[in-house]
Amino acid sequence: MGSQLRIIVKNTGGSSRTGPPPGWGLGLANLRARLNQLYGSDAELRMECTDGGAAVEVIVPYRRLAVAAELPVSMDSVQ
To answer: I want to staple 46 with a disulfide (CB 3.0 to 4.6 A). Which of 19, 36, 57, 74 is the partner?
Structure first.
């Protein structure tokens, strides 16, 4: 796999769970489906629950955006 972008979101508020909940909830299920649709097997969604909280890690292929001069001037042209 080439370059990757990793995003980690942590909740340190504490939790009584010791593993991911079944299905990971609607929000994470939707995110998992969207990542699969956009990136296929090049994306990963990981979750870890501990007594100290929880962490979700999203890994997607790293891609540079077009330079500003190539971006649409108006949101009307964005679909």
So the answer is: 57
